[in-house]
Specification:
Blueprint: H1 9-31, H2 36-40, E1 73-81, H3 88-97, E2 105-106, E3 111-113, E4 118-121, H4 125-136, E5 142-153, E6 159-166, H5 171-187, E7 200-207, H6 211-225, E8 231-235, E9 237-242, E10 245-250
Antiparallel strand pairs: 1-3, 1-4, 1-9, 2-7, 5-6, 5-8, 6-7, 9-10
Helix pairs in contact: 3-6, 4-5
Length: about 250
């Protein structure tokens, strides 16, 4: 004969209360969400290393940005592109004759500037380029010569350039082109070119202001390079660079 032991009603009720209490605790525990820091980690404060707009002169041979970079703003300028091979011998000869303490380096992006470097917002680039295209539409090709060394500095006087200047005989034609560029700049409320333009190709550069020192050396250097001058250049295209985008305009 089997004996069955039934628990009393009070014991059953107590067990039900305990089970219900445990169930509530489990459900409550499920509703507690983890903190964001648990999932993502603590919020990292921004530093200069995280900001890709911080200017670091060590990344570009000590050169300092002329204006602060901001997202959506693109450095833009108009120019005549120059084949590097036309000036290689001239660059090397001048470099050997210049005072070594200035630490001159060869310019690799040879060009004749037709505008200042201006800030253009990204959404204006297409219309800016279209305006240039319209202005240059009837512009004829031209040939120029360059035969005089000249020393320049940038506006901040943080860099010195040895350049070869476009001969004055071509000044009128260069000014005609410049007038078209300035017209587009004014349409976009941007700075026009310098009042007394001196069209040139920078061939060497160094950090610092050494204009006076280099001007004293120019007569001797010019004697050494006289057989390399003048340099003749045919201009068949004009260019505009905005950020990493480059546009060209075929002349007639």
């Amino acid at each position: 004969m089997f004996l069955v032991n039934y628990s009393s009603s009070s014991e059953s009720e107590a067990e039900e209360d305990v089970a219900e209490s445990q169930s509530v605790k489990i459900e409550t525990k499920k509703l507690i969400l983890p903190k964001a820091t648990t999932l993502l980690g603590k919020r990292k404060l921004p530093t200069q290393d995280d900001d890709d707009t911080i200017d670091d002169p060590s990344k570009h041979q000590g050169r300092i940005r002329s204006f602060k970079h901001e997202r959506g703003n693109w450095a833009t300028y108009v120019f005549v592109a120059i084949p590097t091979n036309l000036f290689e011998d001239l660059q090397e000869m001048c470099l050997t004759k210049l005072d070594s303490k200035c630490d001159f380096k060869m310019c690799t992006d040879l060009h004749i500037s037709l505008s200042r470097t201006v800030i253009l917002q990204y959404h204006f680039i297409d219309s800016f380029v279209k305006n240039l295209e319209e202005e240059f539409g009837a512009t004829a090709r031209l040939s120029i010569s360059l035969s005089q060394l000249k020393v320049y500095t940038n506006a901040e006087r943080t860099r010195t350039f040895v350049a070869i200047k476009v001969d004055d005989i071509h000044l009128a034609r260069m000014l005609e082109i410049l007038k078209k560029v300035d017209c587009v700049m004014l349409n976009f409320k941007l700075a026009t070119f310098y009042e007394d333009p001196s069209f040139h190709v920078s061939i060497l550069w160094c950090l610092g202001d050494y204009v006076d020192e280099i001007n004293k050396q120019l007569p001797e250097i010019e004697k050494c390079i006289k057989d390399l001058l003048p340099i003749e250049l045919n201009i068949e295209k004009l260019y505009c660079k905005s950020g990493f985008k480059e546009f060209n305009f075929e002349l007639k």
